[in-house]
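Each letter names a residue; structure tokens follow underneath. Both lines appear below:
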Amino acid sequence: MLRCLALALCLGHPARACETALLLAIDISGSIDAGEYALQVEGLADALDEPEVAEVLERGQVALAVVQWSGVGRQALVLPWRRMLSGAEISHFAQAARSLPRAFTASDTAVGEAIGFSLAQFDAVADCKRRVIDISGDGPENAGYTVGRARSAAQAAGVEINAIAIEDMGPSAPITAFYSRLVVTRGGFVMTARGLQDYPRAIRAKILRELEKPAS
């Protein structure tokens, strides 16, 4: 906390209360190839660089962190919490997101473990009024099988879970249904991306919705 206050003073900004701690949990399981991984990190970086997104991040002094996750025991905090105190801070975070190396390859999809790991990260931002996990995934849980318990733990702790479901092209939406029924918390929502090419649009719209500014 003292470090955050000092940073705000150094940047010439008054220290304000953190409105939202937003943790972005990115699926890098075996079904995500190298090109699709690049689309996710570049899409996230592009969304953060958009003036409309940057404005709501700075206005709310939002704290951001990024987790990469895949199978059992394979979760990593790849970008620790950082307060979005200025446009320069947001740009720096976006640049770091764009150049993120992949933490794991060729692994299963342990959604519940990803949520449990993400929940443990919020102790570092206890002063933020809202705590939100923004999880993306292109498949249902096929390892660990703890998603129900993890969602219950999030609800008990007052942490919201929203999701981006990455679907194949076409009318069916099994991943969206999985996240809607079993992953998001009460009052949460699922944004559907039709293929990884649609991920940049979805992450932008999702961040704006989470921060209570409708996307155009």
The chain is about 40% helix and 20% strand.
